[in-house]
């Protein structure tokens, strides 16, 4: 639970950004042209374009560019000093960024604070899923790892509630309070990480084998850990013989894991989820719900997001990763198509309609919630879980850094261009994201093997048994850690991909 709280800082920022950018006091101080634009009547300004500003979206997206860069530095700290110190660094950086944002008087101070927040997110997102996957037993790895995503959704919900409250405060105090309260999850992460023990894999990697065996006994609740311990030791020996980790990760034998580590976070972002969550209050405001109604709708989607995440926690180690990916993809596809039609019917291509009836607005919010819930039990948590469990130890921290970097770059890109896309594509932007959902669901059907209940150190057999990826893995890779296929035969038979 303590390690999973790293998700709070990511979630709080996702939730707080959109609410703050819909507050009049914030816009007046930093983006007066946007304030004036969104106050014009619908005849003078296309409803879809009222919040279209490159600098406004840079406020949101700059954090994720900083997170992308910092995740590569986090990889070295994670490997050399341990997972907990990377989490600690993330918490401290996030705390500093929150303080700077809370007292910001200029746009430069505001963006500088966002960059510090991004450094915190980059470090925490690189180390926390890795920590959770290494600590968890194979049979519970999905449930425990998804605790990270549960904290993300909790952070989003808390931020939405805070925004709803602070928006009613006159002047600058409302938005300043929203931004400075980001220091609370930052402090929780920084303080909590100091109390965490290192993972057995990390201890072995740093030559502390007796401590690692003791820790393995503690977290497994049994003294019968010799076989797992030897797997970790052998994996560590292989890891230490590897030089130029960033060069070796592109070797053909790692192509299956590398492909998934890049494609999964890319697909996670082109679902359009972060565009919805970042700009939910703004989007609902554009739909004519009014400021307070828009913020309340964001609170509702936040509650749905967190509640649906619990479905994934309960089911991921039972029904498996693939089933959740596929069901979630189908539900997101249908929901986005319906939302696109509902908005298109009412607003058309010029956004002439400025008010929605209560019933119509409720219908739009319902299908957006249906979309959010599907993401929350599929691509949301699994986008972090699957990459964290598929890499061998020798390239694990580097591989997860790639996942975080791709995720953050795509998040940055979507956040930066979403308002511009909405202005030009109008309601068809939902059809654009729906098309990507169809593509990524097809990818899961064809290329992703099932990984539930497989020990991390024996994941190589899952990839070798796959109809497509098996061709890239040489037979000698199966014996690198003195294992034989027979020893892992349950995983070869149970987890074969169709």
TrEMBL record:
Gene this protein is translated from? STC
Molecular functions per Gene Ontology: monosaccharide transmembrane transporter activity; symporter activity
What does the UniProt entry say about where the protein is found?
Membrane
* InterPro entries in UniProt: MFS_dom, MFS_STP/MST-like_plant, MFS_sugar_transport-like, MFS_trans_sf, STP/PLT_plant, Sugar/inositol_transpt, Sugar_transporter_CS
- GO CC term, one of those recorded: membrane
Recorded family membership: Belongs to the major facilitator superfamily. Sugar transporter (TC 2.A.1.1) family.
The record's Pfam families line, in alphabetical order, gives: Sugar_tr
Transport recorded as keyword: yes
**Name used for this protein in its record:** Sugar carrier protein C
Q: How does it sit in the membrane?
A: Multi-pass membrane protein
The domain of life for this entry's organism is Eukaryota
Q: What is the lineage of its organism?
A: Eukaryota, Viridiplantae, Streptophyta, Embryophyta, Tracheophyta
Which residues belong to any copy of the Major facilitator superfamily (MFS) profile domain?
1-452
User: What UniProt keywords are attached to this protein's entry?
Assistant: Membrane, Sugar transport, Symport, Transmembrane, Transmembrane helix, Transport
């Amino acid at each position: 639970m303590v390690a999973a709280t790293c998700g709070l800082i990511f979630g709080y920022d996702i939730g707080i950004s959109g609410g703050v950018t819909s507050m009049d006091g914030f816009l007046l101080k930093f983006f007066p042209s946007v304030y004036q634009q969104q106050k014009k009547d619908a005849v003078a300004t296309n409803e879809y374009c009222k919040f279209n500003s490159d600098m406004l979206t840079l406020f949101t997206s700059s954090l994720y560019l900083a997170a992308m860069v910092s995740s590569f530095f986090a990889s070295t700290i994670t490997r050399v000093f341990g997972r907990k110190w990377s989490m600690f660094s993330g918490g401290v950086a996030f705390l500093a960024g929150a303080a700077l944002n809370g007292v910001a008087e200029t746009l430069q101070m505001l963006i500088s604070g966002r960059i510090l927040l991004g450094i915190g997110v980059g470090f925490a997102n690189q180390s926390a899923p890795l920590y959770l996957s290494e600590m968890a037993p194979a049979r519970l790895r999905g449930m425990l790892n998804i605790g990270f995503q549960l904290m993300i959704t909790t952070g989003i919900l808390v931020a939405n509630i805070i925004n709803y409250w602070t928006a009613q405060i006159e002047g600058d105090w409302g938005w300043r309070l929203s931004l400075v309260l980001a220091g609370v999850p930052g402090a929780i992460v920084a303080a909590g990480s100091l109390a965490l023990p290192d993972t057995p894999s990390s201890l072995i990697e740093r030559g502390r084998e007796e401590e690692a065996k003791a820790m393995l006994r503690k977290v497994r609740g049994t003294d019968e850990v010799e076989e797992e311990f030897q797997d970790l030791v052998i994996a560590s020996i292989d890891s230490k013989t590897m030089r130029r980790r960033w060069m070796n990760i592109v070797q053909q034998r790692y192509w299956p894991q590398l492909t998934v580590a890049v494609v999964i976070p890319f697909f996670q972002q082109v679902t359009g989820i972060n565009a919805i969550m970042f700009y939910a209050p703004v989007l609902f405001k554009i739909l004519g719900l009014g400021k307070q109604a828009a913020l309340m709708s964001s609170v509702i989607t936040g509650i749905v997001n967190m509640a649906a995440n619990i479905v994934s926690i309960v089911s991921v180690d039972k029904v498996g990763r693939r089933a959740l990916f596929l069901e979630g993809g189908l539900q997101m596809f249908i929901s986005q198509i319906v939302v696109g039609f509902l908005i298109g019917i009412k607003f058309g291509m010029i956004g002439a309609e400025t008010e929605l009836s209560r019933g119509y607005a409720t219908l739009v919010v319902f299908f957006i919630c249906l979309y959010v819930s599907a993401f929350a039990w599929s691509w949301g948590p699994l986008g972090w879980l699957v990459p964290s469990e598929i890499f061998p130890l020798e390239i694990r921290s580097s591989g997860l850094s790639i996942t975080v970097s791709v995720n953050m770059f795509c998040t940055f890109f979507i956040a930066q261009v979403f308002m511009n896309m909405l202005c030009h594509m109008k309601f068809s932007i939902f059809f654009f994201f729906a098309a990507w959902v169809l593509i990524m669901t097809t990818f899961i059907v064809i290329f992703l093997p099932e990984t539930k209940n497989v020990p991390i150190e024996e994941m190589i057999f899952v990839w070798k048994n796959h109809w497509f990826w098996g061709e890239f893995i040489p037979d000698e890779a199966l014996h690198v850690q003195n294992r034989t296929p027979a020893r892992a035969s349950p995983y070869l038979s149970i987890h074969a991909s169709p």
